[in-house]
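Q: Give me the 3D complex with fe (ii) ion.
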Amino acid sequence: MESKKQLIALCAVAIIIPCLINSRRQQPSPRAVNTSEFEADVIAAGNGHVIKYLENEQRKEKKAIRPSDYRVRPFNLSGKLKGLSDNQIDQKLGLYAGYVKKWNQIENALQTVSKENVASSYSPFRALKVGETYAMNGTILHELYFENLGTPGRTPEAATKKLLEEHFGSVQNYLDDLRACGLAARGWVLTCYSLYDGSVRNYVLDAHNERVPVMVVPLVVLDVYEHAYMIEFGTKRKQYLRVFANNINWPVIEQRVKKWVT
Ligand SMILES: [Fe+2]
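A: Here is the predicted complex, encoded as structure tokens.
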């Protein structure tokens, strides 16, 4: 009886192993993995947060703006800020308009630039592609910055407060980290929600397109280029950072948190 059982077990192994080997051989190569499988992996890795990201991307695709048709958005912050003058803001609005203009020029030029003899040392195509992210991020980051200024003296609203306490321990800890990043950065500080792992962190950018984190959504955007504070504070960046923190438009941050996080 015992030897009969062993014989059956051996037969089963003899049939199953070749089947397994064969099925492994029939697996598609990594190149053959289709997009939906990839998205499923990303969604699993992102703990479900990516779903919202993909939905938003699809929505955006439907109303995509033509590359050369970006417009300067109006921002009226006149008299609304405490400690930052209209002149300081106006200078930045002028710079912002310049980025929008350049972004359109670059996208137009990319339609006709030669893709022959392209090199990473220098080529007109490379120059345009590098300029593209610089002008694009320069545009978007300034818009987010202007948007999140206003309503001086307010404190974070419910969803934002909960999020900051969850990830930094307290609102004060968050503001201390923002300030430290503000002193460490050469261009921007972004408080971002990660669509990859659900974390909230402050990131330091040295230029519009340098050290930019991926798969994240900016919730708070802080400009620390000298032009953001020189007129008002000279080289005293610490004073500017204090004033910025007091002028954060927390209702706008709350909208961003509700849109992307909760
Ligand atoms: Fe700026």
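A quick observation: Residues 102 and 135 are 6 Å apart (CA to CA).
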